[in-house]
TrEMBL record, chain A:
Residues 459-487 are annotated as: Disordered. This is NADH-quinone oxidoreductase subunit M. It is a multi-pass membrane protein. It comes from the Bacteria. The keyword Transmembrane applies. Residues 135-429 form the NADH:quinone oxidoreductase/Mrp antiporter transmembrane domain. It comes from Pseudonocardia charpentierae.
TrEMBL record, chain B:
It comes from Pseudonocardia charpentierae. Keywords: Membrane, Transmembrane, Transmembrane helix. Residues 148-434 form the NADH:quinone oxidoreductase/Mrp antiporter transmembrane domain. This is NADH-quinone oxidoreductase subunit L. It is found in: Endomembrane system; Membrane. It comes from the Bacteria.
Amino acid sequence: MNFLLPVLLVFPLVGALVMYPLRGTPDVAKKVAIGTALLQIVLAAVTWFAYSVPAAEAGTRFQLEFVLEWIPAFGTRFALGIDGIALVMIALTAFLVPGLMLFSWEERLPEGRTASGYFALLLATEATLMGVFTATDVFLFYVFFEAMLIPMYFLIGRFGGPRRQYAAVKFFLYSLFGGLIMLASLIGLYVASAQYLPAGGTFDWATLRTIVPLIPESTQIWLFLGFFIAFAIKAPLVPLHTWLPDAGAEAPIGAGVLLVGVLDKVGTFGFLRYCLPLFPLASQRLAPLVLVLSVIGILYGALLAVGQKDMSRFVAYTSIAHFGFIALGIFAFSTQAFAGSVLYMVNHGLSTGMLFVMVGLLAARGGSRMINDYGGVAKLAPVLAGCFLLAGLSSLALPGTNSFVSEFLVLVGSFPREPVFTVLATIGIIFAALYVLWVYQQTMQGPVRGKAVLDALGRSNRSGPDASTPHSARGGRPAPDQAGGPGAMIDPAIAARRAGSGFPDLSVREITVLVPLIIAILVLGFFPGPVLDVVNPSVAATMTEVGLTDPVGGLPR
Amino acid sequence: MSELPEVGAATGTASLAWLLFALPALGAAVLLLAGRRANRWGHWLGVATVAAAFVVGLLIFFDTLALDPAQRTRELSLFQWFSVGGLDVDFGLRLDPLSLTFVLLITGVGTLIHLYSVGYMSHDPGRRRFFGQLNLFVTAMLLLVLGNNFVMLYLGWEGVGLASYLLIGFYQDRPSAATAAKKAFLMNRVGDVGLAIAIFLLWRDLGTLQYTEVFERVGDLSGGVLLAITLMLLLGACGKSGQFPLQAWLPDAMEGPTPVSALIHAATMVTAGVYLIARTHPIYDLSTAGRLVVAIIGTVTLLIGAIIGCAYDDIKKVLAYSTVSQIGYMFLAVGLGPAGYALGIFHLLTHGFFKAGLFLGAGSVMHAMNDDVDMRRFGGLARYMPITFATFGLGYLALIGFPFLSGYFSKDAIIEAAFAQEGWQGWVFGGAATLAAGLTAFYMTRLVLMTFFGERRWEKLTSAPTPENPAGHDYHPHESPATMTVPMIVLAFGSVGAGAVLSGIGLTEWLAPSLGELTEVEGGVLPHAVIPWLVVALSALGVLIAWLTVGRHRVPVEKPALVSLPVRAARRDLYANAINEALIARPGTWLTRALVYFDNRGVDGLVNGMAAGLGGSSGRMRRLQTGFVRSYALSMLGGSVLVIGALLAVVYA
């Protein structure tokens, strides 16, 4: 019995509860919260080192197991354990949370909301995520899967943007709908297991694996569909995606990062942990369907991203395209594609997390999420623009950034079995370049323009100390055409920047938020080895569970 | 098919090869991260790192030269990049004559252009950023040519694409620069899809992506797959090298600072497509059809570039289309197979010298002329900038193939090899290449006449108004500072001598371990001895026509609007942009808008409609609960009657 995982699960929950007595002192609450999150990183690191990478396809799948009897009548136990895939997801979650807390440090919260409440909900979400990734009992997984909704619902509904109520309810209903279908499948699975097991039904993942070969394909298909729909809503695959743009746009940035970066990955994690190993025949039979949805998602999500006017919705649609890649990799059934998908889950959390943060930083300055309200920001805030570009490059999977390795593995691994779908998905990389560079051009390049930017400069010109600039003397806003021209050194915008007002570049706190993300993006771009080493054995085990071998290795000679 | 070389491990001096890309990478990192602190000395760091890389390159070159030709192919594995279930991707370098040739070109010309930029960018507030990005480019380009597998190639391939994107958009508050940068990246990505698919095919059928193993096993590929791979590689090459049908980005890329045009968009990056085909020659060796397509693309492009080059008045765009055309020659050469691989690389090297020199000369002219690029506003500049004129003139003579200058050796060799093909191929390839040589002579003579000779049209003009200076500046042409002229002089020596020297010291034998022995050209559709005379005669004709039409007349400052159809077509890039716009950009915009509407109203509308329907129906159902006992009693009666009726029906049925 190893107590590491229960501690990992309970610790953030305790942190969340401690927020309640601290609600009157937000400064203390924030420090305690971020301290909890930082300690959680330490715990995750301990877990990482406690986990010993198994030799490929050796013995049991789960390590650091912790089991308590829970409801013996249902054959369900409070059982925790991790494989390599769960481990990297835990590490990703723990890695992201402190950064987004620091990001939210000075967040303007809606009327009547406290920072302690916000941070408590973030920690509670983290705790439920730990539960989802560590559960090895299917029923326990279901409980965490549903519990995850509650803190996220309040994060969106209480702390979100203007349409937060609508977005939160939509998010909740969509997810609950999927969850209930999964519950039906879960009961079905229990009944099926009771048929084949002399000791009665069970929810234990490892035991269920042993009876998989006995379940007929037709039953598998029904059970598969229940799980699949729940996960396809969570990870959103087109056409079950429309909750994500609303939720992603209205969620406060910190919660949005957690939502898109980690919480949605529970869907793709579920494909790998539950759909494929428990229903291998159904997975193979229905793979074409999933592949069609994936490729549609890649192309459709990318084109929609191009057409968005709201930056948060833009990020949400890029994620829909990325989830298409992950699902493609999972349902192409090859070692490279599986590993690529798992790595993609991590990398997408980092790159989209950073992109979300950049949107938040921009919105914090201009007070708007609209792309059209910004323009020429690179001239005012070059470091911010550079970070935005880096996040975008990671999102379009430029080699040298983390996402390249995962996207390449997904595509190269999918191609031997699914050449047509892979070629279509590869065309998606052109669209990815298009949406990233188009948004970058609109917001960052060109002359200084856009309502949000000019308003910010105008405010500082009226009240700021930089009365020496020629435009403030005239009392008006600088017209966009006056700000143009290469090397125009008398630009009022630059004067405003020098005076430290108007549209300021990144602060030390903001850079502190970004630096770990940037380092992770670049290091994983060149040295993904440590993550892949942990993932590879679990991926090989998944291949065995599906019962397929790699289609690669040369044509028959 | 040529023999594959033995591959050894790099030891001794060659094990320092990682410094080649690490030095400029360090420079880029320092320059981009150090902030304003590095403004004073940053540009010299940029120059120093590339110069140091050049020295390392020279050391490794001489080290390799000392070896027996059979042992000149060596590899250096640095670390394992990633590895999943049999797919092992090495972060490794391949040091062989081909890659070392490129290393010397990139770092050598790169050093000169870095030095030139110190002067050229001296007044630009973004100079540090400029050098950082230029160093980034050198790093990526070196990774591209040094990689020992296809994933490393792809890393460098997209890396140079990023550097090119950043540098084209360097003047980032110019909307036109931002648009050109985005266009370049996107059209390159279209090519990258081709390269990626070629890699997928190699992995599927050969189970490896290391050059050595791929080249050993290509014999196992079926004809169809082989052709598919060659075509997909070609698509990648076309994107990077501005070849038909992906040529439209390269002229727009002239929005970048002129040193960028010289280094990236003339001498090195745009020749990466030629490198790709030469590097993968064991694959092309096996596919006659694939090679033929390469030669056809090259021929089409060399004509397109030469025709459009005749019509532009923008000095940089003429040079850009000249580059498109000259790379077309290189594609034609490598498309000829074992008779042409080395010739393509030969022309690539001489072109690297004289075209870089020409661009630097153009930059020097722009420097003197308030950054104007319109040749109609120039004229008579030879007197004011003698060094620029002399170096530019030598580059010009080299480009048009003046006997015994660089271009004469390399271009004529390609034309001879093209005529040596049998049947229609000989006539078409050779004829087109000769015709384009005449056109090249025409447009380059026109450029030189309009810029350096004739009336000083700028005397009566002022440059376009800027925010600082609404009236516009007068022109005060002057010679450029030494940091700019010295690189131009060095490159001018290259323009003159590179052809003779490289063919004298045996470039083709040096490259043989990488590219196979160069097959001697013989036979073909024209006698061998006639061809040089024919090419020189046609070039002279081009010069003469340029003199008759441009040199003898006054050049109007406004370009004439009423011109013949071919000129109009050439001014509009032979409608390449219009076609892209009509077939891709506009339908894409509409599709995007339609999809956004569909997603909001269709998919999400369905969901919200269901929710609204549910809410509405429950609202109506609620109204049934009126609270009146009499209506409940009535409905109970109705229900009872129905139930009894149903039971009776079942019993008596």
